[in-house]
Design brief:
The protein is an all-alpha fold and about 425 residues long. Helices cover about 70% and strands about 0% of the residues. The protein has helices at about 25-45, 55-80, 90-115, 120-145, 155-160, 165, 170-190, 195-210, 215-220, 225-235, 235-250, 250-260, 265-275, 285-300, 310-330, 340-360, 370-375, 380-390, 400-430, and strands at about 5, 5-10, 45, 365-370. A two-stranded antiparallel ribbon has the order 1-2. A two-stranded antiparallel ribbon has the order 3-4. Strand 1 and strand 2 form a beta hairpin.
Amino acid sequence: MNDLFGVNLQTLFVNHDHTRLQVESPLLLVIFLFCFYALLTAVSLKRGSKDTPFSIPQTDQMKGIAILMILVGHLFGHTLEPYPDLNHLRHLGSVGVTLFLMLSGYGLSQSLKRKGIQGFFFQRITRIYIPVLLVMVPGVLLTHILLAPDSSMIKDLARIVVNLPAVDRNMWFVQFIFFWYCLIFITFRLKMSDNGKVAVLFLAALAMLTIPRLSPSMKINAFSFPLGCWMGFHREAVAALFQRFVEKNLMLPVLVIAAGIFLSPITFELSDRLMEPGFRGVGLLVLLCGIGVFGHAFLQKARIRFSRELIAVLFVLAVIGPYLIWVFHEALAGRENVAGWTFGNLASLILALAVVLIPTLGLRFGWYSRFLVYSGRISYEMFLIHGMFMYSFDFILFRGPLEMTFPVYFACMCLLSSGIRRLGNRLTAGLVSP
């Protein structure tokens, strides 16, 4: 079962959940990774036409930086032996996800304001879940062949829908983004004002912090999507503010970026120290009320008919339903420190906003990085696939010094992500077109 064309697959891959990699000088590795990314960014710089903050090329560059941060954060968090002096690097992955969620909220609010909610669920779910299927089905097959040959293939494939994080730990993000899609759909269905929509989103984020045993990854990013929506609803004012900030005084944005980066270890250390029990959760009531509001709004405002939109809605509920049921059972079972989680959100958002200034600062000189734009365009697909071949089925990192193997790994991930994006776009276009 472990042989393919006479090759023993066990010798091709290493699982770092069981065996971590060791490096002689982790600090030198950090310096190398920074120089590697900086070099790719520098050699791909190009002068562009007059641009504005938070345009598509700008947000692509921000997503590109976000996925690079996630790769470094997960490399130090899941693949390498823990190094206490560099413990704060594990937070880079969380900050990268913060950027993703913030930009997702920004883009979605802009799209819904322009196009409305007609066909919202079907279009969004196909664009998100087709790449998931393209990545996770091969992942399940590899797991079945190499790690759990005695498991049920049918059950493992079913988990791609009903228990996605059990397939890959990073897939909590898909459940999380589905939750926000449902909530923002409600606010648009109820025809709330922009400020009302944002208020509902922030209240939901605050309620998340009180739910015992809710995924820490969700709690530490609770306010990211609502903030992005607020920025999207006030795009002109936000863009003008960033434009003035980078043009008024060059040293000021540079100092803000430097402060956000170099003070982040202190802010994350403080947020970690504040994570102590002390606040009883009220998540059960909040979730029940939320589902009740969604059900009422959908039944009152929409004509129920069997359509691909309804199928998409039911599919979303099937994906997040088991997790919500689990939360119902756990919602009154523990205590949480809301202040600690709130400070953790602020620490991530401060660094994320400092990172946002980096491509925005390029507007002052009329430069943009083609490497960051490219990385941003394939960032979702790379987010889905990078963990599979970084720590679950490492095929290259363990074969030599990371200074040599990581660039090869990164190049392979870029090629795979580009292929998945092209195939996913073709399949999505075939399904979404009337």
